[in-house]
Amino acid sequence: MRNIFLGMICLSIFVSFQSCLNDSCTEARTFVQYTPVYMTKAQFRTAIKSEPVRKLENPGKFYFYKTFLFINDQGVGIHVYDLKNESKPVKVGFYNIPGNFDIAIKENILYADNVIDLVALDISDISQPKVVNRIEDYKGQYINYDPLQYYAYAVKSDQTTILDCSDQNFSQETFVNGGVVFFDKSTAPNTSVISSTGSNTGVGGSFARFTVVNDYLYVVDQNSLKSYLVDNPEKPVLKHTNQLGWGIETIFPFKDKLFVGSNSGMYIFDNNRPETPVLQSVFDHARACDPVVVDDNTAYVTLRDGNTCTGFTNQLDVIDITNVLNPKLIKSYPMKHPHGLSVYDKKLYLAEGVYGFKVLDVANPEKVNQLGEVTGIHSYDMISLTQDRLFMIGEDGFYLYNVSDGKKPILISTIKKNE
């Protein structure tokens, strides 16, 4: 997931195309434009507060803790829902956190990005979060074009533009104009019976950049992996930074390993010394956006084209990690437009954007078979919380499914966008 201009994402929808006649041609294109909103440090550092429930406008990442579902409204804050009654999610409130895209939770302390800061909030009273700590400027590599203003989020608006064939952006799928990035809608990035997780930490999706493992919070930014000691959850302490180069995207913990996805490969870290994870190997692939999930000795990576990662492939890579020092590709499977994914009990749930999502049998990595499919929705990421329950998030909102059938997911409830 690349944000070319600090997360200012604009989606473009191809409407019509007029062929060139006598060296003259135009195309009419309608764009969903995101207008950037900037704040000073003083503004975003004093803006965090609890607010009454509001509509879900721009669904991003999601996280499940105890019986509560947290959905990020990209760059604006976090919606909180109670899922005790899974058929009727109840709105609890909204945490106003400018510049927020990621969260993780340990022992009722929620960690969230607040533009360039990392904040810790006490959510013991779920409706009244309290800031208990702040690590300023934790995004040390944050690119800022104005020393007094920082990009926090963007506001959507529609516009139609006529482009002449002499325009350098004519027929381009992705381009920059006036400091704003435009994407074709079909390829644009998207700037799991329910019971308590029974844990002092929660569960995030495959696009997560924050994760908690025991007494450590791990955070990836565009070029590094940071380790924070959180044995006292209210007081995270930075212990180590692994510099990894550009293009780091996601993190997934599994047993004593950390799997970090980048737009050019998968990094495998030994986490037996949690303060200083040790890089063991890198599995390289074609340049493309990719999250990674792991089960037993197999890793699953999706690659997709047409977005800021500028890749040219849509596929699922199945990788043998029996020898973590030498991961090997087992097989690649073509997909339509894969995004996030989750694996549970030899079933892989794979989001495919505007094409919905697939249920795949991965008991035999050399012969992955499709068991089921849900279409007619937008699917961005998945959390297979249990053998029976699947969480899904997309541009349309949140969906909860019963997947006990193994083939045909049955919808239980939804939290729709703009509701």
Query: How would you characterize the largest beta sheet?
Result: 6 strands, antiparallel
Strand order within the widest sheet? Answer: 3-7-6-5-4-15
The total count of helices amounts to: 1
Distance between the termini: 27 Å
Low-pLDDT runs of 5+ residues are 1-22, 189-198
Shape: globular
* CA-based gyration radius: 21 Å
Structural class, from secondary structure content? mainly beta
Quaternary organisation: single chain
> How many β-strand runs?
35
Tell me the helix content. Answer: under 10%
Mean pLDDT: 84
How much of the sequence lies in strands comes to over 45%
List the helices and strands and how they pair.
Layout (H helix, E strand, L loop, with lengths): L10 E4 L11 E14 L1 H5 L3 E3 L7 E7 L2 E6 L3 E6 L7 E7 L6 E4 L2 E6 L2 E6 L7 E6 L14 E15 L9 E4 L2 E5 L18 E2 L5 E4 L2 E5 L3 E6 L7 E7 L4 E7 L2 E6 L2 E6 L7 E7 L7 E4 L2 E6 L11 E6 L7 E7 L6 E4 L2 E5 L5 E5 L7 E6 L6 E4 L4 E6 L2 E6 L7 E7 L3
Parallel strand pairs: 1-14
Antiparallel strand pairs: 1-2, 2-12, 3-7, 4-5, 4-15, 5-6, 6-7, 8-9, 9-10, 10-11, 13-14, 16-17, 17-18, 18-19, 20-21, 21-22, 22-23, 24-25, 25-26, 26-27, 28-29, 29-30, 30-31, 32-33, 33-34, 34-35
